[in-house]
Amino acid sequence: MSYSVYIPCDAAALALGADRVAEAVAAEAKARDVAVQIIRNGSRGMFWVEPMVEVLVANHRVAYGPVQPADVPSLFEADFLVGGPHALCLGRPEDIPYLAKQSRVSLRRVGVVDPRSFEDYLSNGGGKGLARARLMTPEQIIGEVIYSGLRGRGGAAFPTGVKWRTVFETEAERKYIICNADEGDSGSFSDRMLMEGDPFCLLEGMAIAGLAVGAKSGYVYVRSEYPHSIAALQSAVAVAGEWLGGFDVEIRKAAGAYVCGEETALLESIEGKRGIVRAKPPLPAISGLFGKPTVINNVITLASIPDILAYGADSYHEFGVGRSRGTLPFQLAGNIRYGGLVEVPFGLTLRELLYDFGGGARSGRPLRAVQVGGPLGAYLAEGQFDTVLGYEEFAGIGAALGHGGIVAFDDTVDMARQARYSMAFCAHESCGKCTPCRIGSTRGVEVIDRIMAGQVEKIPLLRQLCETMTHGSLCAMGGMTSYPVLSALDSFPEDFGSLVDSGNGLV
Question: Is this model's pTM higher than 0.85 or not?
Answer without folding.
Answer: yes
